[in-house]
Specification:
Number of helices: 2
Distance between the termini: 32 Å
Radius of gyration: 17 Å
Structural class: alpha+beta
Shape: elongated
Number of domains: 1
Number of strands: 6
Strand order of the largest sheet: 2-1-6
Strand content: 25-35%
Largest sheet: 3 strands, mixed
CATH topology: hypothetical protein PF0899 fold
Order of helices and strands: HEHEEEEE
Helix content: 25-40%
């Protein structure tokens, strides 16, 4: 279960950020997790409290916002959302696209004191 190693790394990052900001309490953390990032929401929600135990992130409210796969077409300029990890324009069918979202795993916000 790689979600536990991701949760452990996240807690380490949180600890560093809180130290840099002089914060002592983390109330909540919001993550942006792409649907095709390879991170499963439920296993991560299970792993996070285990990784956070005994750290400033213990008892923190974890909020996970799942983002869809979105691509921007370089040919027609349209942005389209996909249900499958298919990197082609949903409007004109071009394969010349840039992935805008759907594969990320990042901290969106933290509520600290």
């Amino acid at each position: 279960m790689h979600e536990l190693s991701l949760a452990t790394s996240l807690v380490e990052q949180i600890t560093v950020i809180m130290g840099n900001e002089g914060a002592s309490t983390l109330h909540s953390i919001t993550l942006s997790v792409g649907r095709f990032s390879g991170v499963e929401k439920e296993p991560f929600e299970f792993a996070f409290p285990l990784a956070a135990e005994g750290t400033p992130a213990e008892n923190t409210r974890l909020i996970i916002e799942v983002t869809e796969m979105k691509v921007k077409c370089k040919a027609c300029g349209k942005e389209t959302v996909h249900d499958i990890p298919l990197a082609k324009c949903g409007k004109c069918g071009s394969l010349d696209v840039e992935i805008v979202s759907g594969r990320e795993f990042k901290i969106k916000s933290m509520e600290v004191e």
